[in-house]
Design brief:
Pathway: Purine metabolism; GMP biosynthesis; GMP from XMP (L-Gln route): step 1/1
Oligomer: single chain
Low-confidence stretches: 148-154
Number of domains: 2
Keywords: ATP-binding, Glutamine amidotransferase, GMP biosynthesis, Ligase, Nucleotide-binding, Purine biosynthesis
Protein name: GMP synthase [glutamine-hydrolyzing]
Bound molecules: xanthosine-5'-monophosphate
CATH architecture of the largest domain: 3-Layer(aba) Sandwich
Strand content: 15-25%
CATH class of the largest domain: Alpha Beta
Catalytic activity: XMP + L-glutamine + ATP + H2O = GMP + L-glutamate + AMP + diphosphate + 2 H(+)
Helix content: 40-55%
Strand order of the largest sheet: 3-2-1-4-5
Order of helices and strands: HEHEHEHHEHEHHEHEEEEEHE
Function: Catalyzes the synthesis of GMP from XMP.
CATH topology of the largest domain: Rossmann fold
Length: 326
């Protein structure tokens, strides 16, 4: 009989057997998969695990705190936080091409993680118990998809922690590789992973960096972060989180339009709401969010985010539109 409790017991046993006394490393992204994988390994081998969280500055409001505080509190993991915000901003300065952005973010991520991994190996490892394993939150559909070779998945270069250099020779532990997403969520709840993380909607590795159309800078990130937080808050308040697959909010940073507020003319930026309904992100339809919810989001964003004077709705299915704009 499938119960999350049985699954946890089985996987914990398997991880213990696989790892023995070795030390293990995990890159935490704040997403469901890496969080549940980390919590599972933590349950299995406790203090032998160190998690690394790279704050690249492209996160949404509250996300770093959820990992740094709530997740650590709930699971007790040993967490190394790397503040790489300046470094990512510097690397992205002036870059507008979507694939170039993705490539830069992916490369920087690997470099920062690599350095953190070396530091952990140095600080936490010892001769007898070297850091030998890297946890990955690979799910069953990922296993199937990557076996499928080329296809729709390669339209954009997706970024996960892969491609680590040869001198960091880790073997992979993929404790979730037999599970589907809904099973991972049940396992996460069983392990006490905070609900905000367990029920988190998909969020791309390159984060807000690919939701600013135009060059990424700190000011634009701050604008988008506020608009995004409002949209998420209202969708949650309306009880739509589980009906909607995700709702990217996109800042058209190089576009301006004329507006009016009070007696004054404004010349601000539009943001796009991109709510989608989907089963697996391979295809999607635009989600029919009730008009009153859209109205509230629009009013709040234009009232509360000074630089934004227009909110528009993306009503394109996938295909032809992808879910993200870049
Ligand atoms: P697209 O835009 O290709 O997105 O329709 C499909 C799904 O994948 C997410 N996405 C990513 N996830 N790294 C990720 O981990 C990425 O580079 C990436 N790019 C897109 C997107 O949010 C959607 O759920």
């Amino acid at each position: 009989e499938w119960t999350p409790g049985h699954v946890v017991d089985d996987l914990v046993g398997a991880i213990r057997e696989q790892v023995g006394e070795d030390r293990v490393l995990c890159a935490l992204s704040g997403g469901v998969d890496s969080s549940v994988a980390a919590a599972l390994v933590q349950k299995a081998i406790g203090a032998q695990l160190t998690c690394v969280f790279v704050d690249h500055g492209l996160l949404r409001e509250g996300e770093a705190e959820q990992v740094e505080q709530d997740f650590v509190e709930a699971t007790g993991v040993d967490l190394v936080i790397v503040d790489a915000r300046e470094r990512f901003l510097a690397a992205l300065a002036g870059v507008t091409d979507p694939e170039t952005k993705r490539k830069i973010i992916g490369e920087q991520f690997i470099r920062v993680f690599e350095q953190a991994a070396r530091d952990v190996v140095h600080d936490r490892g010892d001769e007898e118990h070297p850091v030998k394993w890297l946890v990955q939150g690979t799910l069953y559909p990922d296993v199937v998809e990557s076996g499928g070779g080329e296809g729709a998945a390669n339209i954009k270069s997706h970024h996960n922690v892969g491609g680590l250099p040869d001198d960091l020779q880790f073997s992979l532990i993929e404790p979730l590789r037999t599970l589907f997403k809904d099973e991972v969520r049940q396992v996460g709840l069983e392990l006490g992973v905070p609900e905000v993380i367990v029920w988190r909607q998909p969020f791309p590795g390159p984060g807000l960096g690919i939701r600013i159309i135009g060059a990424v800078d700190a000011e634009r990130l701050a604008i988008l972060r506020r608009a995004d937080a409002i949209a998420r808050e209202e969708l949650t308040r309306a009880g739509l989180d589980r009906d909607i697959w995700q709702c990217p909010v996109v800042l058209l940073a190089d576009v301006r339009s004329v507006g009016v507020q009070g007696d004054g003319r404004t010349y601000g930026h539009p943001v796009v709401l991109r709510p989608v309904a989907s089963e697996d992100a391979m295809t999607a339809d635009w989600a029919r969010v009730p008009y009153d919810v859209l109205a509230t989001i629009s009013t709040r964003i234009t009232n509360e985010v000074e630089e934004v004077n227009r909110v528009v709705l993306d009503v394109t299915s996938k295909p032809p539109g992808t879910i993200e704009w870049e």
